[in-house]
């Protein structure tokens, strides 16, 4: 099989396409013949040096394709099943930038019949992250579904990004009023296509004033991508007993905030990353995300606010570069 590998951390030029023997699934494992692989910021960050300890690494957490072989002790999955993957490179050397991947059965999820492989490969990191961001409140739902967020308002920072797009769609499916912050008219159009009821261009408007005009009592949840820059806004617009869910460090690695403002509102802060997330929370997210896909509530493409950018396997380096340089939309690797 063909696979993309790197043997030392560094720029995208360390990636190369090689031929490798077809891996065999062991007990509790499934081999998937991949049709699409998703590329996320974590992939290039790991490649650049955040992940070590293996002689050879195949990057990629997300992907979709067909079950190709099933190891002993696996129930509920059969050869030929259409599936999507979650945490495909977590703790292991070989992820999804390959024609085949062997995964624990718990990382292999049936793909609803109405979903194509572009969508399947776009779910993993973005959708599971968005799910946790929306369900981390002590006073809120621990699962998502129609009506789970009725009467609530969600603010999504960076509504044109992949996680932001998934957060908008999931929150809308769950019944929330969704406000998204964006940096341009073009990105406002994408957030609106994803389902945002309101958009605020943070370069052209006072965000606090604009959000307060939409939600005078404040928002229930802020899904935050740039806390170093936005924490002051979050403290102003999140209501008493609200939630600030922080999933990235865009715009700075350190955050400073006035503590009394957070004390005074009894705010909850949830810092989240999938790789240390409790298995039960990952399973809950996978179940709800799959239900949203089956309901047609999670989509990809220009008309869903998430343009797709396709690269062949031998251009995986260019795909990594596109993500690192802030490509708007979802970057996918075509394997078939």
TrEMBL record:
GO terms for molecular function: oxidoreductase activity. SMART domains: PKS_ER. This is Zinc-binding dehydrogenase. Residues 10-333 form the Enoyl reductase (ER) domain. Pfam families: ADH_N (PF08240), ADH_zinc_N (PF00107). PANTHER family: QUINONE OXIDOREDUCTASE (PTHR44154). The lineage of its organism: Bacteria, Bacillati, Actinomycetota, Actinomycetes, Propionibacteriales. It comes from the Bacteria. Keywords: NADP. It comes from Nocardioides agri.
């Amino acid at each position: 099989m063909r696979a993309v590998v790197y043997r030392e951390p560094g720029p995208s030029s360390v990636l190369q396409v090689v031929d490798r023997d077809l891996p065999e699934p062991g007990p509790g494992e499934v081999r998937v013949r991949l049709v699409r692989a998703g590329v996320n910021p974590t992939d290039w960050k790991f490649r650049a040096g955040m992940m070590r300890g293996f002689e050879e690494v195949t990057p990629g957490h997300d992907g979709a394709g067909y079950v190709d072989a099933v190891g002993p002790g696996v129930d509920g999955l059969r050869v030929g099943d259409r599936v999507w993957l979650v945490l495909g490179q977590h703790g292991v050397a070989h992820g999804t930038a390959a024609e085949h991947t062997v995964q624990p059965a718990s990382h292999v999820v049936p793909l609803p019949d109405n979903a194509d492989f572009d969508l399947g490969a776009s779910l993993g990191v973005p959708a599971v992250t968005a799910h946790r961001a929306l369900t981390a409140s002590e006073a809120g739902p621990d699962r998502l579904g129609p009506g789970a967020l009725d009467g609530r308002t969600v603010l999504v920072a960076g509504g044109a990004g992949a996680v932001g797009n998934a957060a908008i769609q999931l929150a809308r499916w769950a019944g929330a009023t969704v406000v998204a912050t964006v940096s341009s008219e073009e990105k406002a159009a994408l957030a609106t296509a994803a389902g945002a009821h309101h958009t605020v261009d943070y370069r052209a408007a006072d965000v606090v004033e604009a959000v307060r005009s939409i939600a005078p009592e404040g928002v229930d949840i802020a899904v935050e991508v740039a806390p170093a820059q936005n924490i002051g806004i979050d403290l102003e617009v999140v209501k008493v007993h609200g939630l600030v869910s922080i999933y990235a460090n865009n715009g700075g690695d350190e955050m400073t905030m006035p503590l009394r403002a957070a004390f005074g509102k009894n705010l909850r802060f949830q810092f989240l990353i999938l790789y240390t997330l409790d298995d039960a929370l990952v399973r809950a997210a996978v179940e709800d995300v799959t239900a949203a896909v089956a309901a047609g509530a999670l989509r990809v493409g220009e008309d869903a606010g998430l343009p797709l950018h396709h690269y062949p396997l031998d251009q995986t380096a260019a795909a990594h570069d596109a993500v690192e340089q802030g490509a708007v939309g979802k970057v996918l690797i075509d394997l078939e």
